[in-house]
Specification:
The chain is mainly alpha-helical. It has a single domain (35-70, 81-255, 326-461), classed as Serine Threonine Protein Phosphatase 5, Tetratricopeptide repeat. Helices cover 51% and strands 4% of the residues. The strands form three sheets. The protein has a two-stranded antiparallel sheet. A two-stranded antiparallel ribbon has the order 2-3. A two-stranded antiparallel sheet has the order 4-6. The longest helix is centred in the first third of the chain and has 27 residues, at 85-111.
Length: 475
């Protein structure tokens, strides 16, 4: 009798648990997320991180002195620890970007094509996920140096080791080559799930080669032979017009609006003004992009003193075009491509054309992208202070200064370009916490939770300081 009662009680408990579990299931949620949706989410997270001016996670516009602050000036003085900036940046990339790209590829492989798709479409999707993954890892390496890579994203490894930055970067180039080779440009890919090229594989092919061009140039001072072969292989297949720029489309309402709109308009805050470092150089050269970048003060343009407390009403502000909810988030544009080709020409790489020709095309592309005319570009280039033959300094100074001007509103890319070329000459403000940062320090959470691996990485790169030069920053 006792046995019968025990069996009955067990069945009752199991039945009750099953009913409770059923109540905890949200029947409105899908049981699986499509790989295409995971790609969309990761792409948006990546764009948001690179575009946002939120001082908790992205202060690169201030590292390169495009903007400066008004009331709260910690970040313009290179304070990256009062707010956990390195940790927020790190977590976004590993958790929200790379993990979702990994899951996207996993689900795509498991579920196959959407109904009616050619098999080549799936291959294109997987290749594009790989291109975005390569880009994301390249940003991490260019930001921190040695980072978790071979053991990253493995949930079974709680304390991933850090891999050598140069070894990672070379592997990323190889992965990018493989992804490019798999692209079938006569077939589509993600369609409307792709907020950059809307599934146009031909344009993804050009973006991938442009990324390859950039990565090759990053390696130029550390492995010239690999840089040369990489750049020369990419040069003929890069972005060739502003209509082919790699930029993410934003929408008019939250949460899919441009993060600049979120932080400068919807927040109701007046935290940023144009920095005098940038505005002064543009004024000196009669740059036609001034009214396209900034708002005037009276009849001219005035930048706030970089790193000082600035009265918002007294200085030029960000042009309202950039603060529109739908303003695109730029990953790669024609101007950057042409500046990279100019650098390649100066290094005697076979990229077609001369450094001066690519320099002129780069400046013209930037002016026209922002809303200037071909005539504006011609007039600007005719000035002795701008013309390639007469502008001051070495080729690194000529290209570096103009590239910095063209990469306005692309803070991270401008920061990497500055570290590659060492121009323009940026000087830290008197009360800065450090010299101009050349990297972000490792997150404090890594010191706490993954201390031994973090310590080994810090030792390998020469110290966990913002002034530590990374493997590719040789000059």
């Amino acid at each position: 009798m006792k046995n019968i009662f025990a069996i009955f009680l067990t069945l009752l408990l199991f039945s009750s648990c099953a009913k409770i579990e059923e109540l905890n299931v949200n029947i409105k949620d899908p049981t699986t997320v499509p790989g295409e949706s995971l790609f969309t989410g990761a792409q948006l997270s990546l764009s948001d991180q690179m575009v946002t001016p939120n001082v908790n996670s992205n202060i690169f516009r201030m590292f390169v002195q495009q903007w400066t602050e008004t009331t709260y000036i910690d970040e313009a003085n290179y304070d990256i620890t009062t707010r956990p900036i390195p940790g927020n940046f790190w977590n976004t990339f590993y958790r929200d970007v790379l993990m979702n790209f990994k899951e996207s590829a996993k689900v795509l492989k498991a579920t196959g094509n959407l109904p009616g798709d050619d098999p080549a479409v799936l291959e294109n999707k997987l290749a594009i996920v790989e291109v975005m993954t390569v880009y994301a890892y390249s940003v991490l390496v260019e930001t921190f140096g040695d980072v978790p890579y071979t053991q990253a994203l493995d949930q079974a490894v709680l304390l991933p080791k850090y891999d050598d930055g140069l070894t990672i970067y070379k592997d990323l180039v190889a992965r990018l080559n493989a992804a490019i080779a798999k692209m079938n440009t006569s077939e589509g890919s993600f369609g409307s799930y792709d907020n950059m090229y809307y599934g146009n594989t031909g344009l993804w092919f050009k973006y991938a080669n442009s990324l390859k061009l950039r990565m090759g140039m990053v390696l130029a001072d550390v492995d010239n032979a690999l840089a040369k072969t990489t750049v020369e292989a990419a040069a003929a297949n890069v972005i060739a017009s502003n209509s082919e720029n790699a930029a993410v489309t934003y929408m008019s309402s939250q949460p899919n609006n441009n993060p600049v709109n979120e932080n400068l308009v919807l927040s109701g805050r007046n935290d940023f003004v144009a920095a005098n470092t940038l505005v002064d150089m543009m004024n000196e050269r009669n740059d036609p992009r001034r009214p396209l970048y900034f708002t005037p003060v009276g009849e001219g343009f005035i930048g706030g003193i970089y790193g000082a407390s600035n009265d918002y009403t007294q200085f030029s502000h960000v042009n309202p075009t950039l603060t529109e909810a739908t303003f695109e988030g730029m990953f790669f544009d024609l101007a950057e491509v042409e500046f990279l080709l100019a650098e390649g020409a100066e290094r005697q790489f076979n990229v077609g054309g001369t450094a001066a020709e690519h320099y002129n095309k780069a400046i013209s592309a930037s002016i026209e992208y922002w809303g200037g005319t071909a005539a504006d570009a011609t007039t600007y280039l005719a000035q002795p202070s701008v013309a390639y033959a007469t502008a001051a300094g070495t080729w690194k100074q000529k290209i570096g200064e103009q590239k910095w001007l063209a990469l306005y509103n692309s803070g991270f890319t401008a920061w990497t370009a500055f570290r590659m070329l060492d121009y323009p000459m940026l000087i830290a403000p008197p009360d800065a916490d450090s010299e101009l940062p050349l990297r972000l320090t490792y997150p404090t959470t890594e010191q706490t939770l993954n201390g031994a691996n973090r310590a080994a990485a810090a030792s390998a790169i020469g110290g966990d300081a913002v002034t530590t030069k990374l493997f590719w920053d040789k000059n």
